[in-house]
Amino acid sequence: MLNKEIRLVISGTYSTGKTTTATALSIATGIPLINALSAREILTDLYPGRRFQDMNATELMALGLKRFEERVREEAILYLQHTNFISDGSVLNEWIYGTVRMKVGLNPGSGFIHRAAKAILGLPGRGFYKKYMNAYGQVARLHSQQWYTDVVHLPVEFPMSADGHRPVSERYRTLSDKEIREGFLSIGKTPELVSGSQVERLRKIINLYDLPVVVPIDEAVTQAEEQIRTNREAVSKRIIEQYKEPSLKEKIKFISEF
């Protein structure tokens, strides 16, 4: 039994283990997890066969809007059904990911020539995109302030996973980590910094918020890791099935469109 309402964000940048932490925490405590589609899952529906590093600004905005819609809908459903929830990331995290792309490049995981071309091509539209991200930020910050009660932030503790599914750079990861924490502070939410192994993280979070334990922590972590592995394998299979090597003409188009 919870002593108070909690709508807890497990925050962090790419490859910090937040999906595993959030999933395991939900299993361990019985608090429902926001079940929104991941960016990779959305990509297979919005732009089948497209890789993140080949997306242009319009496509990235569409992906961000769909991700926002997914999160807000699922949060509303769980709030009405349970009041409490655990969220793997947040609308504020997603907004920060976009603002950092404006600083380090639209496709930070791409090669130098690709990034240089995009930087030059994007100059005429920077004013519009900045205004768009500012407007998006107003909504994301207000939503985060009103809907989330607490924030746990997972710091960057290890190198980015080399599984090929993180279309960003270490510079992007470092900057977004810093700006996510600052973003929550700016809306009056002080993130609790939690590090360590998955088991250590869960113990710390459960103690911090006096959460119930309905499944042993070790078992919850094992279940979460298996659940995530199965899901990622299914999504990877779908991506592989959809993907076809772009022609030279298509590669030039990817580079020449902002």
From TrEMBL:
Q: Which domain of life is it from?
A: Bacteria
Origin organism lineage: Bacteria, Bacillati, Bacillota, Bacilli, Lactobacillales
The NadR/Ttd14 AAA domain sits at 7-189
Q: SUPFAM superfamilies in the record, alphabetically?
A: P-loop containing nucleoside triphosphate hydrolases
* Family annotation (InterPro entries): NadR/Ttd14_AAA_dom (IPR038727), P-loop_NTPase (IPR027417)
Which protein, by its recorded name, is this? NadR/Ttd14 AAA domain-containing protein
